[in-house]
Each structure stands twice: as C-alpha cells, then as structure tokens.
C-alpha cells in the first residue's frame, strides 16, 4: 500500500507539476494564434456560431435546417456570453469569446474530470487524456464535441467516484447524461454504458462474479433488478430519447438527407486503427509483438483462426465500406487524404489493410482483456473497487462502439473520441520496457505515460501548425481561405 501511495504521488507530481503546465502553455499559445489567424467561421462553425449569436440576440425560435445536433451548445454559449458581458467584455458573443468556451471546457473541466479517476486508476495521467489529439484542435473552435465529451464523462465519473453517495450520484449522473444528449445524440448509448459501469462495479464489489459467462450475465441481471431504483433514472432518459426519435422521425435534427443511417462496418476498423495508433506508447514492446505473433500464427490452429478472421475482415471491407460524398469532395479533412492516398489509392489497396486491421483489433482487445477485473473477492475493497471492467462491461463497451459508429456513413475521426477515452480510462500501460535495453531505467509505466504525453503534444503541435499556416482556396470560392483539420 505504501508503494502504491508513492507511485501515485510521483505520477501526480509529473502530471500536474510538469505535463499540465506545458500543455496549458501550448493551448494558450495555440488559441492566440488561431484567434489571430482564423478570424472567420470555419466549416461547421458557420452554422454553430450563427445559431448561438441568434440566441444571444434573443431569437430562440429560428433554427438553421443544416444543423444536425440539438441546441445544447447554443444555450451554453448564450450563458457563457451573458457571463462575459456582465464582466465587461466587449463582443461577448463574438467568435473568439465563444471559442473560449471550448478552451475552458477542455483545459480546465476535462482535466479536473480525468483527475477524479486517478484515485481508481493509476495507469492514466489526466493531462494525457486532455491532450488526446482528436480532441485538442476543437478546444480552439466552436464545435459541439468538447462539451458533449465533458458532460458524458462527468456522468461516468459520478458513477465511478460516487462523490455524493450512491443514489444521489447515480441520479445526477443520469441527469447530466441527459443534458449531454442535447449536445450529441449518440451520447444516449454512452449514458447506457455509464449505467452498466455503475452496476458492474457493484457486482464486483459484492464478489458476485463467479463461474462462466452465463453466470456472470445472471449475476448482472440480478443486480439490475435489485438496484432498480438506480436503473430508473437511466430508463427515464432512454424513454425520453425514444419519444424524441418518434417525434423527430430521425436521430438528426437537420440535413437528414446527408445523414442517413446505414451499415458501415469498415468504420469499426478505422476506429480501432486510430485507437491503436494513438495508444502506441502504452503497449509497444518486444514482448507485446511476440504475443501477437503467438496469437496469430503460433500454431496451426491459431493460424487457421487468423486466416478466418482476416477473410471476415476482407468480406466486411468489400460489402460494408461506405464512401460518403462529403468524404470524396472535402479536402479540408485529413481523412480525405487518408482515403485518397491509402484506402482508395487503387482498386485493391483497401483489402491490403486487412492484416493491419487484424493487428489493431488485437491491440485494443488484448489491452481490454488483460485489464479485466480479477474476480477474487478477497482483493476487492467494497467501498472502492478498481477501475476495471468485468467481461460484461467489456462486451457492453464493444457493443457501444458498434452501435454509435456503424450506422454513420461518414468516415469521421471525431466519432472515435469517446471510444478511445473510455477505453483508455479502463486500461493500464504495459509493465514491460519498450525494449529490453531500457530495462532498469525507471518504471516502465512512468516511461510510457511520459512518452504518451510527448507523442500527443507533438501530434497536436503539427495539427495546429498545419491548421494555422497551411491556407488554400477553392476555385469556386475565390477569396475564402480554407484550412485542414481532422
């Protein structure tokens, strides 16, 4: 216990004393640069800023039919602008003022949220998650992603930390989760997962997980029935969302013709590839790569299973890859270049990625599996079980990924933010050194977390630099500066 306390102290010191000040400085410099150079609304900001500024002007009834998400961001932006105006800020509902709302949400609110989880998980620096590259550039522009993420993760933290006690924390979690849906509709799925986490941790703490998977399911269902008062607020949220779907006729508010749900299974492979790539520092090692080789071709049986899995991946690529018109036409996104120069480079290039997808599935699945809850009741503190998932929780997590991204026809990295952050919160860095030559030079988890921070910061620096400095125009829109973003 004394050793764990020392490790936690060192981790906190490096996180708050070194990583966070560096990252905060980077964000302040980036925000200033973007405010100075990107003075016009960018892509979806055209709709979001205009709508919020209508609210600031007192018009809460005019709705832009191109906006697909609910009005949560605009009400929050209105409140933020009102507060800034009371403080005497000129143009409190201007572009820079509204963008600063997301900066506050990212570098302050998310940082504090992730810090609350460190009591339960020593394998994460809160700054590393706050600096996740798919998030950071949106700290500097007025998009829905930041506060959508802040609110749904607040809901999660409440059921993990239970700061108000069991029932008040659960009810507040369900309420804040409902608010988060007013920023991003698919948060209803992750709100359901938060409920699963709450119940899962209670089954873990009671030591009821024993036997095979079917017995795990029975234990979870029994817990759900006995804890029906905890389930009720989440069920009410689900009922309200169902009523919205019936009344609206679609999950999107506007632009419904360009956001028709389909079956886009290739999206799962894109998501897992991004997750594996952004988590390289926490898993890469000689031992890990050797374990993949043993898993995939270590025996005749494993080689046959691998062949069947790759054939399945090839079938999904062939039948369930969607090339949305936005992806093909909009060169302001990195995925445009990923698609053109890698996935659709020629008629067979997308199929050549199947082994890479197989490896990335292994990375995500292996870390999830090796970090599952150890069902030994003697090792559980009833008041504070470790931040780990049971097999039931892991299955629910994978189902949430599928439900949230497979229906979307857009190849959109922003959809991978929550899958990654949830996964990263529940997995620990490998205890193996990167290479055996580094064995003995510090604790591997500390090395890995430090490298994770450095990698995230480097990627963010490149993304922001390109966003600020690389400008071009479209022939059909002369004089309008275009830029590149995720």
TrEMBL record:
<feature type="transmembrane region" description="Helical">
    <location>
        <begin position="348"/>
        <end position="369"/>
    </location>
</feature>
<feature type="transmembrane region" description="Helical">
    <location>
        <begin position="170"/>
        <end position="193"/>
    </location>
</feature>
<keyword id="KW-0256">Endoplasmic reticulum</keyword>
<feature type="transmembrane region" description="Helical">
    <location>
        <begin position="420"/>
        <end position="441"/>
    </location>
</feature>
<feature type="transmembrane region" description="Helical">
    <location>
        <begin position="96"/>
        <end position="116"/>
    </location>
</feature>
<keyword id="KW-0812">Transmembrane</keyword>
<feature type="transmembrane region" description="Helical">
    <location>
        <begin position="389"/>
        <end position="408"/>
    </location>
</feature>
<feature type="transmembrane region" description="Helical">
    <location>
        <begin position="265"/>
        <end position="284"/>
    </location>
</feature>
<dbReference type="GO" id="GO:0006488">
    <property type="term" value="P:dolichol-linked oligosaccharide biosynthetic process"/>
</dbReference>
<keyword id="KW-0472">Membrane</keyword>
<keyword id="KW-0328">Glycosyltransferase</keyword>
<feature type="transmembrane region" description="Helical">
    <location>
        <begin position="453"/>
        <end position="470"/>
    </location>
</feature>
<keyword id="KW-0808">Transferase</keyword>
<feature type="transmembrane region" description="Helical">
    <location>
        <begin position="304"/>
        <end position="328"/>
    </location>
</feature>
<protein>
    <recommendedName>
        <fullName>Dol-P-Glc:Glc(2)Man(9)GlcNAc(2)-PP-Dol alpha-1,2-glucosyltransferase</fullName>
        <ecNumber>2.4.1.256</ecNumber>
    </recommendedName>
</protein>
<feature type="transmembrane region" description="Helical">
    <location>
        <begin position="146"/>
        <end position="164"/>
    </location>
</feature>
<keyword id="KW-1133">Transmembrane helix</keyword>
<dbReference type="GO" id="GO:0005789">
    <property type="term" value="C:endoplasmic reticulum membrane"/>
</dbReference>
<dbReference type="InterPro" id="IPR016900">
    <property type="entry name" value="Alg10"/>
</dbReference>
<feature type="transmembrane region" description="Helical">
    <location>
        <begin position="122"/>
        <end position="141"/>
    </location>
</feature>
<feature type="transmembrane region" description="Helical">
    <location>
        <begin position="6"/>
        <end position="29"/>
    </location>
</feature>
<comment type="function">
    <text>Dol-P-Glc:Glc(2)Man(9)GlcNAc(2)-PP-Dol alpha-1,2-glucosyltransferase that operates in the biosynthetic pathway of dolichol-linked oligosaccharides, the glycan precursors employed in protein asparagine (N)-glycosylation. The assembly of dolichol-linked oligosaccharides begins on the cytosolic side of the endoplasmic reticulum membrane and finishes in its lumen. The sequential addition of sugars to dolichol pyrophosphate produces dolichol-linked oligosaccharides containing fourteen sugars, including two GlcNAcs, nine mannoses and three glucoses.</text>
</comment>
<dbReference type="Pfam" id="PF04922">
    <property type="entry name" value="DIE2_ALG10"/>
</dbReference>
<comment type="pathway">
    <text>Protein modification; protein glycosylation.</text>
</comment>
<comment type="similarity">
    <text>Belongs to the ALG10 glucosyltransferase family.</text>
</comment>
<dbReference type="GO" id="GO:0106073">
    <property type="term" value="F:dolichyl pyrophosphate Glc2Man9GlcNAc2 alpha-1,2-glucosyltransferase activity"/>
</dbReference>
């Amino acid at each position: 216990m004394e050793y764990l306390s020392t490790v936690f102290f060192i981790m906190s010191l490096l996180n708050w004393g070194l990583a966070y000040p560096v990252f905060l400085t980077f964000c302040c410099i980036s925000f200033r640069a973007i405010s100075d150079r990107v003075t016009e609304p960018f892509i979806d900001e055209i709709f979001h800023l205009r709508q919020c500024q209508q609210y600031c002007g007192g018009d809460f009834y005019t709705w832009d039919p191109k906006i697909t998400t609910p009005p949560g961001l605009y009400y929050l932006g209105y409140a933020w602008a009102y507060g800034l105006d009371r403080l005497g800020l000129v143009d409190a509902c201007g572009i820079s003022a509204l963008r600063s709302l997301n900066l506050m949400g990212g570098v302050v609110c998310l940082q504090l949220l992730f810090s609350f989880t460190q009591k339960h998980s020593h394998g994460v620096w809160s700054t590393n998650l706050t600096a996740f590259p798919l998030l950071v550039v949106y700290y500097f522009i007025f998009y829905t992603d930041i506060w959508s993420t802040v609110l749904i993760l607040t809901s999660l933290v409440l059921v993990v930390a239970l700061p108000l006690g069991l029932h008040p924390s659960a009810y507040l979690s369900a309420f804040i989760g409902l608010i988060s849906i007013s920023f991003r509709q698919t948060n209803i799925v992750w709100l359901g997962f938060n409920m699963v986490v709450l119940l899962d941790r209670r089954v873990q703490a009671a030591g009821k997980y024993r036997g095979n998977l079917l017995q795990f399911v029975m234990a979870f269902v029994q817990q759900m029935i006995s804890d029906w008062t905890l389930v009720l607020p989440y069920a009410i949220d689900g009922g309200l969302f169902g009523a919205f779907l019936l009344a609206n006729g679609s999950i999107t508010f506007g632009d419904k013709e360009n956001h028709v749900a389909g079956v886009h299974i290739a999206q799962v492979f894109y998501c897992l590839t991004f997750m594996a790539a952004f988590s390289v520092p926490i898993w890469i090692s000689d031992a890990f790569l050797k374990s993949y080789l043993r898993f995939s071709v270590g025996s005749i049986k494993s080689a046959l299973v691998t062949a069947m899995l790759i054939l399945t991946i090839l079938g999904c690529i062939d039948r369930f890859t969607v090339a949305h018109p936005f992806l093909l036409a909009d060169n302001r996104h990195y995925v445009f270049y990923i698609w053109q120069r890698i996935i659709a480079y020629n008629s067979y290039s997308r199929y050549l990625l199947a082994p890479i997808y197989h490896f990335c599935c292994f990375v995500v699945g292996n870390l999830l599996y090796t970090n599952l809850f150890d069902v030994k009741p003697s090792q559980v503190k009833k008041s504070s079980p470790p931040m780990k998932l049971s097999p039931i929780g892991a299955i629910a997590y994978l189902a949430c990924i599928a439900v949230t991204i497979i229906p979307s026809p857009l190849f959109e990295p922003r959809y991978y933010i929550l899958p990654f952050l949830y996964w990263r919160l529940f997995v620990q860095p490998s205890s193996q050194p990167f290479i055996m030559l580094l064995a003995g030079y510090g604790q591997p988890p500390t090395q890995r977390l430090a490298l994770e921070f450095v990698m995230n910061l480097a990627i963010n620096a490149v993304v922001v630099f390109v966003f600020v400095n690389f400008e071009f125009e479209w022939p059909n829109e002369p004089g309008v500066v275009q830029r590149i973003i995720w």
